[in-house]
# Entry
Amino acid sequence: MMVIDTLKSRLCLQDACCESGQALVELALTMSMLIVMLLGAVQMGLLAYAAIEVANTAKAAAQYGAQNPGTSVDTTTMQTLAVNEAKDYGITLNTPISVTHATGCAKSGAVTAGSSGCTAGGGYVVQTITVSTSAQVTPLIRLPGLGPTFTVNGSAIQEVLF
# Structure
């Protein structure tokens, strides 16, 4: 009986010695996966931040142009304003920055293209400005299969105040 107990205790000690590094290996594997997931989340956050700021630059330019009919045709100032707004956020916009104008007729809630005869039918002229911006964003970590940069786009539409 004593011999069997001695053999059992030796077998248990041998199993414990064989499993002594298992926790360290598991920790190394899970930590590497968690670090990759954390870096991916940080990268997605930076891309989302850049996309929001590029959209804000377009909105700032469109809001300037929508102040009155005089500023609505000042596309150079709108483009300069968008570039300066982007610099405040540390982003360089791609050029050219697109500024387009559209004129329509609003009658009973619907807007149709063109303004001929608009006021005669009880409607009013609506002029809108659309500003489109874009920027290249370089990721912190380059992954195989993805390009070296990402393009984020922003757009804003504003009605001109009369």
